[in-house]
Design brief:
By secondary structure, the chain is an alpha/beta fold. The chain has 14 helices and 15 strands. The termini are far apart. The chain binds 2-acetamido-2-deoxy-beta-D-glucopyranose (5 copies). The site of one 2-acetamido-2-deoxy-beta-D-glucopyranose has 6 residues, from loops. It holds the Pfam family Alpha_L_fucos. Alpha-L-fucosidase is responsible for hydrolyzing the alpha-1,6-linked fucose joined to the reducing-end N-acetylglucosamine of the carbohydrate moieties of glycoproteins.
Length: about 500
């Protein structure tokens, strides 16, 4: 055990020492590390490089809740706990003895074309996908041995939805495949019994949650395990560290998999390969550990809602802003859409994803395989966020407003050798200093700029004089619980229809 610890510490040292370490070296040091089923040991595992380099993934909330497609993916729970819209809907449209389980036979997925989904997600510029394999309703989207008659093969589509989607992603795209999995189930009798016992019994995790996790990893080899539904009980109840130690030491994806932080009521914003803290998490500052903002296009739901209107959707500009802010601060963006029970993706969601793709086609070099710069945001211009290429060291200033005549920057210190270019625009740009000593970069006329500059302008800066010592104060892991998300719940750009 002592020996293993030394090896683990050495591996961490190597990760710190080389930003791009030779493949051979990383594989060797990885092979010799055995992680203990403790958070202390599991947190020492270096993340596989692909996850940090990807920056952008697609989250897909799909399940039996897509059949009522009302209120949110929490429909069952809200119906049973007094939500008026859910109760009125059920009273008006269904007989009194209708159960939530009865919705499953109407989950047809008749138009589910996994190859089309794969192409849409690839066109968005995302580098990974995360599908709900099982939400809090307990219905498994694969033919699980542990969910008899409450899975997508036995009732509903009569198809292995997870398997078909996994094959399409793996065969047709370069995207990484990931799965969401809910630990608890609102109404599972074994879970409710453990809960009534104050979680002193562990029948539900042993008979259901854990066997399912091993089953999906062995069958579909997902490279992201996005856990959720953990918050009512400790990670000891769930035996999360036992599972993750297996995932990192022995599973078929041990070298490439990443997991989030939702593994028990004491683990969020602390443990795992990356932190999610809360939904729509946007700290607005550099965090001491890799993190991810999971954000849904429909502001009010993760699952599809039939009564969704366009004013409920985040705009392309807002989504580009969320991605930029996350990447500048060491995070990724996991952007969610909810497909219909027919298996289609609403055209408005497809359009948002294509808009992200068109922006990334032009501006992706400021996002993918970048790292946080010395400054995350500008000192005088509230619309500018920075990233830096891992490979070339070039600094990107991402101005999150439509192109104007010029852009003022306070943080970068220009040298005589500094040149400024704009992505999707011509040549080298002129710049001057204003009376305050800030740099004013002159932009070419709009007709010489790419169309994506209606959302943002990305400047490329080289040969700057900035020194790492001028970095603003950084927060530490122990300060993390105090960090609040800055993402606005109210949409300030809410589209209003003009007469
Ligand atoms: C996926 O690709 C593998 C390897 O090329 C092939 O054997 C398999 O038949 C493909 N599956 C589908 C469903 O296309
Ligand atoms: C976490 O869950 C355990 C049961 O597993 C419970 O005893 C404990 O009080 C919970 N802690 C918090 C902070 O809610
Ligand atoms: C937790 O999981 C590990 C790995 O599967 C296993 O060895 C251990 O016995 C489990 N612990 C409990 C309390 O079930
Ligand atoms: C950005 O930077 C300024 C100072 O340079 C700081 O006061 C501000 O809080 C930062 N964060 C955000 C989210 O604007
Ligand atoms: C920048 O553009 C604004 C108008 O958008 C103009 O008033 C200002 O003089 C310009 N500054 C410089 C230094 O060109």
């Amino acid at each position: 055990m002592h020996m293993q610890l030394v090896v683990a510490v050495f591996a961490v040292y190597l990760t710190a020492a080389y930003s791009q370490w030779p493949d051979e070296l990383s594989r060797k040091s990885q092979d010799s590390v055995k992680y203990e089923p403790t958070w202390e040991s599991l947190d020492k595992r270096p993340n596989p490089e692909w996850y940090d380099d990807s920056k952008f993934g697609i989250f897909i909330h799909w399940g039996v809740f897509s059949v009522p497609a009302l209120v949110s993916e929490w429909f069952w729970y809200t119906w049973k706990t007094g939500n008026k819209q859910a109760q009125d809907f059920m009273r008006t449209n269904y007989p009194p003895d209708f159960t939530y389980g009865d919705f499953a036979k109407d989950f047809h997925a008749s138009f589910f074309d996994p190859v089309h989904w794969a192409k849409v997600f690839e066109s968005s510029g995302a580098k990974y996908v995360v599908l709900t394999s099982k939400h809090h309703e307990g219905y498994t989207m694969w033919p699980s041995k542990y969910s008899f008659n409450w899975n997508s093969m036995d009732v509903g589509p009569n198809r292995d939805l997870v398997g078909e989607f996994a094959t399409a992603i793996k065969n047709q795209t370069k995207l990484k495949f990931g799965l969401y999995h809910s630990m608890f189930e609102w109404f599972h009798p074994l879970y409710l019994e453990d809960k009534a016992n104050g979680y002193r019994t562990r029948n539900f995790p042993d008979a259901k949650a854990l066997p399912e996790l091993y089953e999906i990893v062995r069958t579909y080899e997902p490279e992201v395990i996005w856990s959720d539904g953990e918050w009512e009980a400790s990670s000891t109840y769930w035996n999360s560290t036992g599972f993750i130690a297996w995932l990192f030491n022995e599973s078929p994806v041990k070298d490439t998999v990443v997991t989030n932080d939702r593994w028990g009521n004491e683990t969020r914003c602390k443990h795992g390969s990356f932190l999610t803290c809360e939904d729509s998490f946007d700290p607005g500052q550099l965090l001491p550990k890799k993190w991810e903002n999971c954000l849904t296009v429909d502001m009010y739901s993760w699952g599809y809602r039939r009564d969704m209107v366009v004013e409920n959707l985040r705009t392309a500009a807002e989504l580009i802003e969320a991605l930029t802010r996350a990447v500048s601060c060491g995070g990724n963006l996991l952007l969610n859409i909810g497909p219909t029970s027919d298996g289609t993706i609403a055209s408005i969601f497809q359009e948002r994803l294509y808009q992200m793709g068109s922006w990334l086609d032009v501006n992706g070099e400021a996002i993918y395989a970048t790292k946080p710069w010395i400054h995350q945001n500008d000192t005088v211009n509230p619309h500018v966020w920075y990233t830096q290429s891992k490979k070339t060291g070039l600094v990107y200033a991402i101005y999150l407003q439509p192109a104007k005549k010029n852009i003022t920057l306070g943080a970068p210190k220009f040298s005589k050798l500094t040149t400024v270019k704009v992505l999707g625009g011509p040549g080298v740009l002129k710049w001057t200093l204003d009376e305050q000593g800030n740099t004013v970069v002159k932009l070419p006329p709009r007709d010489e700029l790419d169309d994506t500059t209606v959302w943002s302008v990305v400047l490329v800066l080289d040969n700057l004089k900035n020194k790492p010592s001028e970095a603003p104060p950084r927060i530490t892991m122990s300060m993390l619980p105090q960090v609040r998300s800055m993402w606005r719940d109210e949409n300030p750009h809410k589209q209003t229809r003009k007469a």
